[in-house]
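#random but structural
TW: two for the price of one
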Amino acid sequence: MEKMISLTDSIYNIVNKYDEVIKIMEILGFEGMTNKTTINTVGRIMTLEKGAKFKNIDVKIIKDEFEKHGFIVKE
């Protein structure tokens, strides 16, 4: 089964579908968004795309890191 995510999906939905996303987010610098409480609250409205803007992380870096871990990333 292919692991597919979208940069516009909520972090909550992505994490609930793929547990390993938390580790990838930590690698990328999303430390504040990786605890369960934050994921269950802010993560419902926060997307990877919004998080990238908030943390000033290039979306290409996010896409490359997820692809390195076997994900297909839709923009």
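TW: number two ↓
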Amino acid sequence: MIGDKRVAVVLPAYNAARTLRITYDEIPRDVVDDIILTDDASSDGTVEVALELGIHTIRHERNRGYGGNQKTCYRAALERGADIVVMLHPDYQYSPRLVTAMAAMLSSGHFDGVLGSRILGKSALSGGMPLYKYLANRALTATENLLLGVKLSEFHTGYRAWTREVLETLPLDACSDDFVFDNQMIAQMIHHGFRIGELSCPARYFAEASSINFSRSVVYGLGVLETAVRYRLNRMGVLGSPLFPALPTRSVSDKEISA
């Protein structure tokens, strides 16, 4: 716990047997109350390793995709009483030791969501990110900042943390079950007026770390652009979208008073 906030770490897993143990060993137990792994029909021994480690484990009988996996993770975390949920990839690409810092940013009351940014600390390329992915990251982020009206260092990190309020408010079932889920969730955060913080986060790129190939990256990039355009058209009143439902009219919210 941090303060009176119950902290859960969710691990959306797919063929993570070789890296799960080292990821698990670095999760800070002094603040984390619950660890949940959802296995997306892996073909390796991910479930066996998770059970051996004593992790609360959910297994999909069929592969539901990266976004579908997260939906299961978040539902389980809420059902098990989490107030703060940190989403950590079990492939050891991101440092589990930053869980405490991310959870603390949320428990402070200043933020509703936190992104672990590979760009703020300039560790993306030094950590092994392919150059084409880095350039695509920069171009997509610049476009999204313009269309979404924010200024984030990156939208494409896989290391994220959310408050319970965020997960109970956002219409996540309207989001894709594929990789663009992450991006759609940030756009929904902005649509709902939630506050997003960023934390510098080193990242590692190695054979066992999950990564999408070039063709899937292109599909993801197109989905990112589509999401940003749909958001802008929705804000202009030109095109409605289930991703961005109409919000109740309000004057000054409790969130704005406390900010």
